[in-house]
Specification:
This protein has 425 residues and is α+β, with helices and mostly antiparallel strands. Helices cover 55% and strands 11% of the residues. Strands 1, 2, 3, 4 and 6 form a five-stranded antiparallel beta sheet that branches. It has a four-stranded mixed beta sheet with strand order 5-10-9-7, with helices on one face. Strands 8-11 form a two-stranded antiparallel ribbon.
Length: 425
C-alpha cells in the first residue's frame, strides 16, 4: 500500500473518531457548564444512532479490517448500546471482487508456476467475495472440482495500518475519558481473530480437525482440504454444492424436513462446543449448506476457536441451572465460565439471569438461547458496572443466537439441551 493511501486511511479514521467523540463530549461539557444533569440513556439514543452511522460509513468506505471491526462491535452487546448493535450488524463483508488479473497474480505467486500448470479450468468470476479474500470455482489437472480461496495481495498491509490507527484512537480515548469502555482489549481480540483468518494453513488445520471429529457422522460434510496446492494465502479445497440452510422451500422441494436439518445442525455445534471444546465460530447462513442427500455442509474455518478446559461442562451447568433456577448452581456455573464481579458480589449475576429469562418466549429457559435472551443478557451486563463477561462466552452465545435465528427461519427452535440428548436424525 502506497504512502498517500496510508495517509488517507489514517486521516479518515482520525476524522471519524473526532466526530464520534464530539457527539458525546461537547453536549456533556455544555451541560456541566450550565449545571444541567447528564443525559439519560433515552436522551442518548439519537446520539448513539448518529455515531453508529458515522462508524458504518467509515467501514463501508475503507472496507477490510473496518468491516471486521464493525462485525466485532456488533457481537458485543455487553459493551455497546443497542443502537450500535442494530446498525453495525447490517455491516456485511461482501465486497466488490478484485479483478481476475490480480487473482491470477496471487495464485501464480503462491504456487510458483503458471495457473494452467495446476488448473485445467479456473472461473474468472468469483462465487463469493469478502473483506479479506474471494473464492473461485476451478478444476485441477486430475479432474477434481475445487473451490480456491485467494487472499487479497495488499490486505496484510491494510490491516497493519488500520489496526495501528485504531490503537492510537483507543489510547487517546482511554487517556482522556475518566470512565472509558475498555476498547483496547476488544482491539487485541480483533487482532487475534484477524491473524487466524489470514492464515490459511491454520484454517486448513482447523477444517481437518472438525472433519475428523465428524468422520463417523454421515449427516455432516466438511470439505476436504487439498494441502499440496494450499499455502498461507491460498486455500484449495473440495468443491461441495448444496442449498442454503435457510432456504426452507428448497429443502422441502428436495424432500428434506427442515426440522431434521436443524436438529443435525444443532448436533454439529453442540458436539463441537460442549464435547470437543473446539468450534467453527461463524455459523452465518453463507457458511452453512445442505446437500440434496441431507448432509449439513460446514464451510469457512478461518474463525475457529479452542475453548478453555471445562467450558462445556460449565455451559451445561448454566443451562440446567437456568431451567431449574437453581441459584447456587447458577453462581457456580457463572464462576466456572469465567464471569467475574469487580465488587466481589456475585449475586449480581442472579439479577442478570432473571432479566435474561424474562425475555424468553415463555418466561422460562427451555434450552434455547434466543437473540432476545442473549441481547438482554449483554444489555444487563453493560448496564452493570461490576460485571465482567469472558470473551469465550460472548462468542459462544453469539453462535447459539445465530443458530436460533436460522431455526426460526426454518419454523423451528434451536434447543441446545434437546440436541445434547439426541443423536442426529
Amino acid at each position: 500500500m502506497n504512502l498517500p493511501t496510508r495517509i488517507r486511511r489514517s486521516l479518515r479514521v482520525g476524522w471519524t473518531a473526532g466526530v464520534v467523540w464530539s457527539l458525546y463530549k461537547v453536549p456533556g461539557y455544555w451541560r456541566r457548564l450550565t449545571r444541567r444533569p447528564a443525559r439519560t440513556e433515552a436522551e442518548l439514543s439519537p446520539t448513539h444512532e448518529r455515531a453508529a452511522r458515522h462508524i458504518l460509513a467509515l467501514a463501508l468506505d475503507l472496507r477490510g479490517v473496518m468491516i471486521k471491526m464493525c462485525q466485532a462491535v456488533a457481537t458485543r452487546s455487553d459493551m455497546f448500546p443497542k443502537e450500535f448493535i442494530d446498525r453495525l450488524k447490517q455491516c456485511h463483508d461482501a465486497v466488490p471482487p478484485k479483478s481476475f488479473e490480480v487473482v491470477r497474480g496471487v495464485v501464480e505467486r503462491e504456487l510458483g508456476k503458471p495457473l494452467d500448470a495446476v488448473f485445467v479450468e479456473f472461473e474468472e468470476r468469483p462465487i463469493a467475495s469478502a473483506s479479506l479474500a474471494q473464492v473461485h470455482r476451478a478444476r485441477l489437472q486430475d479432474g477434481r472440482e475445487v473451490a480456491v480461496k485467494v487472499q487479497y495481495p495488499d490486505i496484510e498491509d491494510i490491516i497493519r495500518t488500520d489496526l495501528a490507527n485504531m490503537r492510537r484512537v483507543c489510547r487517546v480515548y482511554e487517556y482522556f475519558d475518566p470512565q472509558p469502555i475498555e476498547l483496547l482489549p476488544l482491539l487485541t481480540e480483533l487482532t487475534t481473530h484477524l491473524s487466524y483468518e489470514l492464515d490459511f494453513v491454520r484454517e486448513a488445520d482447523c477444517a481437518e480437525r472438525v472433519r475428523e471429529l465428524f468422520a463417523d457422522d454421515a449427516h455432516v460434510k466438511v470439505p476436504q482440504m487439498i494441502r499440496e496446492w494450499s499455502t498461507r494465502r491460498l486455500l484449495v479445497m473440495e468443491l461441495v454444492g448444496g442449498m442454503k440452510i435457510t432456504d426452507k422451500a428448497a429443502l422441502e422441494k428436495a424432500g428434506l424436513d427442515p426440522a431434521d436439518v436443524l436438529q443435525d445442525l444443532m448436533h454439529v455445534y453442540v458436539r463441537m462446543i460442549l464435547a470437543a471444546g473446539f468450534f467453527q465460530a461463524d455459523p452465518h447462513p453463507g457458511n452453512l449448506f445442505v446437500t440434496p442427500e441431507g448432509q449439513v455442509v460446514v464451510l469457512d474455518f478461518g474463525l475457529s476457536k479452542e475453548l478453555p478446559e471445562g467450558f462445556g461442562l460449565g455451559l451445561f451447568e448454566l443451562m440446567f441451572s437456568l431451567m431449574t433456577f437453581n441459584e447456587s448452581a447458577m453462581l457456580r456455573a457463572f464462576d466456572e465460565l469465567g464471569f467475574r464481579s469487580k465488587s466481589g458480589d456475585n449475586t449480581t449475576f442472579l439479577a442478570i439471569a432473571r432479566r435474561m429469562i424474562a425475555r424468553s418466549d415463555t418466561g422460562a429457559f427451555e434450552g434455547e438461547f434466543t437473540e432476545d435472551m442473549t441481547d438482554e443478557l449483554f444489555e444487563a451486563i453493560r448496564e452493570d458496572p461490576v460485571a465482567e463477561v469472558p470473551s469465550d462466552f460472548v462468542l459462544v452465545a453469539r453462535v447459539f443466537s445465530l443458530l436460533s435465528g436460522i431455526a426460526h427461519t426454518l419454523g423451528s427452535r434451536a434447543n441446545v439441551l434437546q440436541a445434547m440428548s439426541g443423536a442426529p436424525s
